[in-house]
Amino acid sequence: MPQPIVAVTSGEPAGVGPEICLRLLECAGQALPVQLVILADRQLMAGRAQSVGFSGRLRDWTPGMPPAPGTLDILHLPLSVPSCPGKLDPANSPYVLQLLDRALEGCLSREFSALVTAPVHKGAINDAGIPFIGHTEYLAEKTHTAHVVMMLAGGGMRVALATTHLPLKEVPAAVTQASLERTLRILHADMGRKFAIGNPRILVAGLNPHAGESGYLGREEIEVITPVLDRLRAEGMILIGPLPADTLFTPPMLSRGDCVLAMFHDQGLTALKYASFGKGINVTLGLPVIRTSVDHGTALELAGTGRADPGSLFVAVEQAIAMAQRAELNP
Fold first, then answer.
1. Is it true that domain 1-145+287-331 has CATH number 3.90.180.10?
2. 323 pLDDT exceeds 80?
3. How confident is the model at residue 108 (pLDDT cuts 50, 70, 90)?
4. Which of 99, 134, 170, 303 is the S-S candidate for 9 at Cβ 3.0 to 4.6 Å?
5. CA-CA distances (angstroms) from residue 250 to 13, 260, 294?
6. Please, which pLDDT band fits residue 31 given cuts at 50, 70 and 90?
C-alpha cells in the first residue's frame, strides 16, 4: 500500500517559508509514516538552500515517486517573477495562491492526505489587487464550505474562534445565535474527528468584560450566547460558560475543559501565543480536507539568514499526520 502524502505549501517566497520547509528534511529523516511533498518553485528552493547551507538533496516530485533518504521532494510551480529574501513583490501573489490551489486540488482528489501551509503575506496579496483575508477564509471559499472554524493549538491549549479576521468594531454584530451554533457544532464534531476527544468539554468565553456583568457591561451574553449554550446543552454537549475571558486562561479554569471558544481573534490568541509561540499551530475545522499551519507570519527580516525557527512547522506536520491517520481509521 503506498505511503500517504502530505502536501506542504512554501508560502510567501520572500519570507521564511521556503527555508523552514527545507528544515523538514530533519523530520523526514525520522522515518515518518507519510511522504512529504513541498509545493514551491524549484529554483527558489535551490537558491534558498544554498544561502542557508542546506545539506540535503532536492528532487522534482511526480505522482507515484517513493521517498528517498536525505531528499526533499519538490512539486514545482514557477514563480511569477524572481524573488529576493526579505523583499515583497505583489507580482508573486498569483504564485502564492497557485500553491494553495494545487495542494487543495490534490487533497480533494485524495492524491494528498493533508495540507500544511507555511505563512503568506496578506498585504502583498491585497496589494496585487486580489482580495484576501487569510488562509482560513480562502480555503473555505475554494471548497464551497459555508462555515469553518479557526483553531490554534499549543502551550497545552486548544483555542477556537467564533470570529476571525474582523475589525474589532464589527465583532459584536458578527456574533449571532446562528453563527455561534454552527461554530460550536463544528468544534464539537471535529474535536472527535481530528483530536480523538469525544463529547469534549468546551469552555466558552463571553464577549464583554466580566462576561457582561449580568447585563451592566453588555447584553450579548444574555441575548445571544447563553440561549445557544442552553439549546446545545439540552442535546448533551458539555459547554461551560459564558466565562469572563480575563480569568478563563488560568490553569484552574483551563483544567476544566478540552478546548476554548473565544469570541474574537485577540481575545483567544494572545494568551495562547504567549504560552506557545514558535510551537503552536493553526488548524482549520469544518473543511472537507485536513489543514494545519504554522502560528507565525512571514518574518521577512529573517528570510535567507538560516535563523528562522522551524518548530511550529514541525508540529503542524506532526499534527497533520496524526489527523490523517485518524481519518484513515475512521473514514
1. no
2. yes
3. very high
4. 99
5. 38, 12, 24
6. low
pLDDT, one tens digit per residue, over 166-182 is 999 999 999 999 999 99
Pairing mode, strands 149-154 and 157-161: antiparallel
Rounded CA-CA distance 304/174 in Å is: 40
Cell numbers at residue 225, please? Answer: 450566547
Cα–Cα distance, 128 to 140 (Å, whole number): 21
Average pLDDT, the chain: 93
Amino acid identity at 262: A
What is the pairing mode between strands 5-9 and 114-117?
parallel
What pTM, to 2 d.p., does this model score?
A: 0.91
| DSSP state, residue 89 | -
Beta bridge partners of 230: none
Write out the residue limits of the CATH 3.40.718.10 domain(s) in the chain: 1-145+287-331, 147-283
Q: Which CATH number fits domain 147-283: 3.40.390.30, 3.40.718.10, 3.40.50.1110, 3.10.20.30?
A: 3.40.718.10
Q: How many other β-carbons are positioned within 10 Å of the β-carbon of residue 197?
A: 15
